[in-house]
User: Which sequence fits this backbone?
């Protein structure tokens, strides 16, 4: 009988050691392989291209952190916008912010409240915020940024386009999910 108790104790001890070693190896997680990722999605690519065409003398910045745009005295206030990012920031010839552009991506389900909150934060700081539901059209961008300063050039036909002609003819379904 004592032999069975000794053998059982040894087996129990071995099982405990194996369990302990497996817990140690689980706590040391390994990193996954790093891969390249696209900077822009398709809507952001089109918007950036159109902004550069409409505003050739302006600087267009993409994915700008709110920390670079806003400052405050208190840390608790800074925490309210810590992880927020503006889609595009348009700088004029004097490197002053002319407008901040926000895009609603129809592929991503977002809640309305955070978008309105972001817009309100930027507007309270004195920025001009322009939000588009989808990729803005050339005429809309001209109206928003140039106003009546420039006579509109006709929109080029498909045969006149040299770059990005594949995207200009796509019909886009405008879908906005409210939750």
Assistant:
């Amino acid at each position: 009988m004592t032999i069975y108790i000794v053998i059982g104790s040894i087996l129990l001890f071995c099982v405990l050691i194996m369990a302990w070693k497996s817990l140690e190896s689980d706590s040391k997680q390994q990193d996954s392989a790093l891969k390249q990722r696209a900077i822009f999605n398709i809507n952001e690519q089109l918007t950036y291209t159109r902004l550069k065409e409409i505003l050739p003398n302006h600087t267009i910045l993409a994915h700008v952190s709110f920390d670079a745009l806003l400052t405050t005295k208190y840390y608790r206030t800074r925490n309210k916008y810590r992880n927020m990012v503006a889609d595009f920031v348009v700088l004029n010839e004097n490197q002053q912010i002319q407008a901040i552009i926000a895009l609603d991506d129809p592929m991503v389900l977002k809640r309305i409240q955070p978008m309105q909150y972001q817009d309100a934060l930027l507007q309270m700081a004195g920025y001009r915020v322009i939000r588009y539901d989808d990729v803005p059209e050339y005429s809309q961008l001209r109206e928003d940024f140039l106003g009546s300063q420039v006579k509109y050039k006709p929109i080029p036909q498909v045969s006149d386009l040299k770059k990005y002609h594949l995207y200009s003819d796509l019909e886009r379904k405008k879908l906005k999910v409210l939750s």
